[in-house]
Description:
By secondary structure, chain A is mainly alpha-helical. In chain A, 86% of the residues lie in helices and 0% in strands. Chain B has one domain (2-101, 169-254): P-loop containing nucleotide triphosphate hydrolases (Rossmann fold), CATH 3.40.50.300. In chain B, α4 packs parallel to α6 and α7 packs parallel to α8.
Amino acid sequence: xxxxxxxxxxxxxxxxxxxxxxxxxxxxxxxxxxxxxxxxxxxxxxxxxxxxxxxxxxxxxxxxxxxxxxxxxxxxxxxxxxxxxxxxxxxxxxxxxxxxxxxxxxxxxxxxxxxxxxxxxxxxxxxxxxxxxxxxxxxxxxxxxxxxxxxxxxxxxxxxxxxxxxxxxxxxxxxxxxxxxxxxxxxxxxxxxxxxxxxxxxxxxxxxxxxxxxxxxxxxxxxxxxxxxxxxxxxxxxxxxxxxxxxxxxxxxxxxxxxxxxxx
Amino acid sequence: xxxxxxxxxxxxxxxxxxxxxxxxxxxxxxxxxxxxxxxxxxxxxxxxxxxxxxxxxxxxxxxxxxxxxxxxxxxxxxxxxxxxxxxxxxxxxxxxxxxxxxxxxxxxxxxxxxxxxxxxxxxxxxxxxxxxxxxxxxxxxxxxxxxxxxxxxxxxxxxxxxxxxxxxxxxxxxxxxxxxxxxxxxxxxxxxxxxxxxxxxxxxxxxxxxxxxxxxxxxxxxxxxxxxxxxxxxxxxxxxxxxxxxxxxxxxxxx
Lengths: 264, 255
């Protein structure tokens, strides 16, 4: 009985060790990004290519989801507001919801799925087919070429996509408002931005930057550490998405708390 | 002859009492090996005996548990990242899977290490180098093709060309003929010999293919159960009465 207990303790202690070793490894991976970031030369060609892939190639999906989010949110909110005779508040309500929460969150969740899985699978497959080792033995720095360029691209492009998504979302909302109240575009945007402060816009940009960094870093880490063949590549792609989303929600809670504290 | 003897007195790679384990699996159990200038040493052994681990330790991709690996006079485990990068410029590593960057064309694959390590080269000079190594491996026509459009043998050749572009002093070949048909294997074996003659390289060739060993190796080292059981020329090694060596020989040719 005592032996079984000892074995169990041994297994538990080994799992705890592994957990902390993984955290330490992830911490070193993130720390390396900041040290490589300020060591010239950066891989500008690869950064531009990744910005194109993360930003431009996501425009279609972001347009669609942003537009539907704005339109549906307006349609859903209208009956409740109309009940209180407050339908004229719709533009500002929608703007607050989209700019403060929906645009950064929806954009980053979409990108976690589209871009995160792409990066995780790409780097994972490069890892298991020894392409990353090949870069290393040819005296080049695979971390700078693969990780730094991708993390910079996601950190730069998610805020751009968030702004674009917010604009498209408001256009979706305008479509519904215009159909019911015949409001002009100028009046709609004047109403929409009447309740938006610089703090809202600043907080949204900070959120988008954090989410972009998180998506890039988590996906690169999972891809870079992939092992055990094609199954490992699948796991890396999956973990990239799931972990990115988890951290995005965690950051959302923290940033909202901080913003509310500053606002009050 | 005397000159060759003098050159041979200085090993470019020295390995002493090298140990490496993965968990409870003891892969390398205290191996010693010297590689001399302009010599091809073939490391023979069954799959899973740690042959690839050995050359990955030499290239600094893996760290040994204990023992010394000296490459061109430098202790690999003592090198920092910068030192390791400088050393890797002198080492060409040809991977078993070729490890070509599959999102890049052949030209971009070959340019990749060159433009990052010789930043002062003009595009014209880069193109000249690329064409030269492609000609050396006999694949000039593949310049703008993607790795997915190449055959297994062509991929191996491009992989070797990519390592040659930095003019390394030492070549490490990991299973160069694995998965290739006999004729393509023969071509790769000839290429390994040509590389040695043309680029004056020393090489460690990892293989379990006896034809490859006989054609490319000046010296053979037989790795069994994590230790070199014998070293010498092909005939010397297989003249051994050791049962495991005879089994390896017989099995290879029965196959």
